[in-house]
Amino acid sequence: MNRLLLKRVWLGFLCASTLLLAGEQFSMSQADKKMYEELKENNPADMNVEEGMELFEELGEEGALAKFLDVNQTQLPSYIAGFPRYIAKMGNVVGLDQVLQAMQVEQGKAKDALSSESMFSMLAYVKSFANDEAINIDIKANKEMEASYALGEKLYSQARGYRGLSCNSCHALAGSILRTQTLPELGEQNTGGTWPAYRMTLSSLVTLQERSRTCMRDAGQAPLPLGSKEMVALEVYISNLAKNNKHAVEVPGLKR
Ligand code: HEC
């Protein structure tokens, strides 16, 4: 059997075997659903956001961020709703967390690792400035954004790892069920606008990039490093899917 066919059969088996039993209601157990409803009223990640606020104060608050990004403070929310962006002085298309790191460096402070809880919290706080703003990432803004989008699109549909799976192998099958979990179509469900989010299964705040790394591991792929060109490109691609679906920023999200 060729590799592609094998992959189809493997996925088909996993989906079919659970689809028989499963409707939408099986995507979470009843207990999980109950917890989800409760936590929606009172997202535990609000505590991270508060912690992020305190950490961000040390960097000089909104004024300092607006200055670093060279935008008017009143434009900051809508500007944040357009990340990842090409930031000329950083010479790269970057996530908002990398901007926070660059500010730390510029101020002579130790930079928080992209994987640190403090950075996740700060990112959630700063991204929440953009809540209710329409996602407005511009993949045509410049050649760097064009290249990043093209790379993200390629990586999204490129098979990687020993199982021969791409992101698209699963995430294009929106609405079907894999081992009791509904496979999300990432544009439709506003993945680009709802992370950082609280993950109930981990009882912690997680970023979009970190969540993607979990999928890479599950799919038998070596996880891409946080903040790498490739990982940022995937975030660009996923953010653009959310934009195409006319979503707004809603953080912190609440996820299974
Ligand atoms: C083997 C199937 C599979 C593959 C391959 C896969 N995913 Fe997933 N992914 C899932 C499932 C299932 C969920 C939802 C799980 C849940 O409900 O918690 C998910 C959820 C996600 C989420 C969270 C969506 C949200 O808004 O809650 C992101 C982000 C994500 N995947 C990114 C990726 C990326 C990027 C890739 C490719 C590198 C990828 N996934 C490959 C099965 C897969």
TrEMBL record:
The primary site where this protein sits is: periplasm
Q: Which SUPFAM superfamilies match?
A: Cytochrome c
Q: Which residues form the Cytochrome c domain?
A: 147-256
Listed GO cellular component terms?
cytochrome complex; periplasmic space
What are the recorded Gene Ontology BP terms? sulfur oxidation
Its localization reads: Periplasm
Gene3D superfamilies (UniProt xref): Cytochrome c-like domain
InterPro entries noted in UniProt: Cyt_c-like_dom (IPR009056), Cyt_c-like_dom_sf (IPR036909), SoxA (IPR025710)
One GO MF term, please? Answer: electron transfer activity
- Cite the EC number: 2.8.5.2
Print the keywords alphabetically. Electron transport, Heme, Iron, Metal-binding, Periplasm, Signal, Transferase, Transport
Q: Out of the domains of life, which is the source?
A: Bacteria
Q: Where is the signal peptide?
A: 1-22
According to its UniProt record, which reaction does this protein catalyse? L-cysteinyl-[SoxY protein] + thiosulfate + 2 Fe(III)-[cytochrome c] = S-sulfosulfanyl-L-cysteinyl-[SoxY protein] + 2 Fe(II)-[cytochrome c] + 2 H(+); S-sulfanyl-L-cysteinyl-[SoxY protein] + thiosulfate + 2 Fe(III)-[cytochrome c] = S-(2-sulfodisulfanyl)-L-cysteinyl-[SoxY protein] + 2 Fe(II)-[cytochrome c] + 2 H(+)
Instruction: Say which family it is in.
Output: Belongs to the SoxA family.
What is this protein identified as?
Answer: L-cysteine S-thiosulfotransferase subunit SoxA
The protein's organism comes out as uncultured Sulfurovum sp
